[in-house]
């Protein structure tokens, strides 16, 4: 069965390019333009993985979405790949090499935009494999 991926990003060009790349990897892809629509699609399709932007309707929308999702036992097992151009847009950079944090930034992986298609597909495959192994 083909894996389902949900992209939550307010940049339609980024979302479309990412959708095309992921579909080339034989994934079924849905897109939501903000976190409210993302939550509805999450409930409807129960994706196997989420590609999540940080700054959407607010500068911290992606952080809030990830924390909300992690608190829900129905969805807290779904891997989150956070993709952002925050560094480029704000100059803000996370301290250290790994910005993930179980409370502040509860995501599985973090990638800076622009995403390189080959790296995106490799990271998605890796995250889905880890999720399957966890069961």
Number of folding domains?
Answer: 1
Biggest sheet: strands side by side, in what order?
Answer: 2-1-3-4-5
Rounded to the nearest angstrom, the distance between the terminal CA atoms is 16 Å
Largest sheet features: 5 strands, parallel
| Class computed from helices, strands and strand pairing | alpha/beta
Key features of this structure:
5-stranded parallel sheet; 5 helices; 5 strands; 135 residues; alpha/beta
Summarize the model shown.
This protein has 135 residues and is α/β, with parallel strands linked by helices. The chain has helices at residues 12-24, 35-45, 61-71, 86-90, 117-134; strands spanning 4-8, 28-32, 49-52, 80-84, 109-112.
Polypeptide structure, described:
The chain contains five helices and five strands; from the N terminus they run βαβαβαβαβα. A five-stranded parallel sheet has the order 2-1-3-4-5, sandwiched between helices. It has a single domain, classed as Response regulator (Rossmann fold), CATH 3.40.50.2300. It has 135 residues and is an alpha/beta fold.
List the helices and strands and how they pair.
Blueprint (H helix, E strand, L loop, with lengths): L3 E5 L3 H13 L3 E5 L2 H11 L3 E4 L8 H11 L8 E5 L1 H5 L18 E4 L4 H18 L1
Parallel strand pairs: 1-2, 1-3, 3-4, 4-5
